[in-house]
Specification:
- The chain is an alpha+beta fold and about 270 residues long.
- It has 2 domains: about 15-150, Elongation Factor Tu (Ef-tu), domain 3, CATH 2.40.30.70; about 165-270, RelE-like (YaeB-like fold), CATH 3.30.2310.
- The protein is about 20% helix and about 25% strand.
- The protein is built from 7 helices and 13 strands.
- It has helices spanning about 50-55, 140-145, 155-160, 170-185, 190-200, 245-250, 260-270; strands at about 15-20, 40-45, 65-70, 80, 90, 105-115, 120, 130-135, 165-170, 210, 215-220, 225-230, 235-240.
- It has a 6-stranded antiparallel β-barrel with strand order 1-2-7-6-3-8.
- A hairpin with a 2-residue loop joins β6 (about 105-115) and β7 (about 120).
- The termini are far apart.
Length: about 270
Amino acid sequence: MTQPVPTLPTLSLQPIGVIRTKMRTKFDSPHQPKNSEEERNIIQLYPGHGFHVALRNLAEFDRIWLVWWFHRNSTWRPLVLPPRGEATKRGVFATRSPHRPNPIGITSVPLLGIERLNLIVGNTDLVDGTPILDIKPYIATVDAFPEASLGWLAKVEEQLLQPPKYSISYSPLASTQLEWLINSCGVDFIEKAAEVLQRDPSIHRTRRIRRWSEELLQMGCGPWRIIFSVKELEVVVIFISPGYPDHLLLAGPNTEINDQDAQIAFKAIWPD
């Protein structure tokens, strides 16, 4: 006899603030915070709720836990394809995928200082505007288990310790386009893209790598696209392309389109 599916209770949550970072898109965000780099990000708590009192004694801790909302996701999947490692689907509870039944994330960050309702924190993996649900102190004696098994990620971490398998080069056109984006628009995504492509440039949905033509592949880098070829163990970046079509770019200012002005200017120089 089939058992009835239970009705799950609902829970109402309200953010206590948002975090402000330089990362505008998911592509900008690392899979995990890079402790080797120094950052300064700000958590802005909302006024009028007594949060200034709730922060008492928090400055005594070096690190804190952030509990936050994957606010850009509206669906979940029981099986997900992690961006790192081989193209194998994993149970979502065995990953840190944003596609969760309740899209809640946790991140440990260095606490650099507190200025009224602003918390200055270090390296993080949160995109700008992520809602913060809660803050807890990181307690090394109970929160750290360095000998714990990494599960399927152990193989991935071992592979990351090895030198990149592929070399990468750029056509004259791609070099000119990338230089223009950096110098004229302050847009620079190639370093992170190169890290991915040098490890594994094969077709992969989560890494946003797909076939562009019979001989070329395309990688999505936030609002931009990299078109490249793979010959033996060399990745050759052929050219760069905006990710949005003209009818969206030219329809007027749209806060949902990152780098809109830069893409319009780019297309004026390098039309499709």
